[in-house]
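#struct-help
A.M.: can someone run this one for me? Single chain, 116 residues.
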Amino acid sequence: QVQLVESGGGLVQPGGSLRLACTGSGLSVNDYIMRWMRQRPGAEREFVADIRGAGGITNYRDSVAGRFTISSNSAKNTVYLEMDSLMFDDTAVYSCEAQDSLAVYWGRGTQVTVSS
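D.P.: on it. Structure tokens below:
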């Protein structure tokens, strides 16, 4: 059974940092496109970043490029999202997805709140 579990969310002040983790079971993160998505209050779910395979090719939405970094650790079967210089608009539920040619899996998400 495939499962993705996110962790690391919380309350942080503007300008602060958080590191989110997405740990997979029942799959290998290196075999999938691993993607972080977020849903801000009152908004549609949106793409944040992804990482593709062991080679680690990455993509970011424009508003987080240069502030967020996605990475993976195959030994821990975990994908990370390092978030720096957080802003109020980054407040959202962040969830991870795993996609290959056959299926998409996603976790329940973790809340990130940026507030002073």
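A.M.: thanks! The first strand starts at residue 3 and ends at 7.
D.P.: also worth noting: The chain is about 0% helix and 55% strand.
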